[in-house]
Specification:
With 207 residues, this protein is mainly α. The chain contains 10 helices and 3 strands. It is globular. Helix 3 packs across helix 7 and helix 4 crosses helix 8. It has a 3-stranded antiparallel β-sheet with strand order 1-2-3, with helices on one face. It starts with 10 loop residues before the first helix and ends in a 12-residue tail after the last helix.
């Protein structure tokens, strides 16, 4: 007669919880980037927060420079040259560092943030206790601002990096220039922006 194998039941197996499988992004939202108008709505919603100027400035800087959230929260004042209006971008994931221009509205926002920062810190974006802003904290802020702005999907920080890429592609910048600006080592990561740019087919039917 065949032997029957009995499974030993322990408290660990009884109380074990199964983590639900995360749905792919395509099932959660129709796209992974924001339009320029949606970024503006997100910033307006962020301004209503208790620390509205800081939150709106974080959103603007992340968008204008295509920063990953870890690059944003690690941003330091010594990376900003107010006199020349330039930002020295340090990239993670072995990305290529670069120097970006800072436009007037962003420069004014950063100057005000530096004047009002208490306690002072080498980091640009800090909590009310003076600690560097956390990646999770920024993600929560973006999600809440997205809901306040009544976006049709759940917003997350990386959408701002993608928004930067698509906005620059729509303005006619070529793939190589985008690659340098976003710090991509592999140009295949940049191609998506120019491939989906509506200006790519602007004169398609006129030929």
């Amino acid at each position: 007669m065949a032997k029957r194998h009995l499974r030993l039941v322990t408290p660990a197996t009884v109380n074990r919880t199964v983590t639900p499988k995360r749905l792919p992004n395509s099932d959660l939202r129709s796209r992974e980037y924001l339009t320029e108008a949606e970024v503006e709505r997100l910033m307006n919603a962020a301004r209503k927060n208790r620390w509205g100027h800081r939150d709106a400035t974080m959103t603007l800087v992340a968008y204008r420079h295509g920063l990953r959230v870890s690059e944003l929260v690690d941003l330091r004042w010594d990376q900003i040259e107010f006199a020349s209006g330039t930002l020295h971008v340090r990239r993670v994931k072995q990305g290529t560092p670069s120097t970006h221009p800072i436009l007037g509205d962003e420069l004014r926002a950063l100057r005000r943030l530096k004047r009002e920062q208490q306690p002072t810190s080498p980091f640009v974006f800090t909590s009310e206790r003076g600690a560097p802003f956390s990646t999770a904290g920024f993600a929560r802020m973006v999600e809440r601002a997205g809901a306040e702005a009544k976006l049709a999907f759940k917003a997350h920080p990386h959408m701002l990096r993608h928004a930067c890429g698509y906005a620059l592609a729509n303005k006619g910048h070529d793939t190589r220039a985008l690659q340098a600006y976003l710090g991509h080592r592999n140009i295949q990561h940049t191609v998506r922006y120019t491939e989906l740019s509506p200006t790519r087919f602007k004169d398609f039917w006129r030929r």
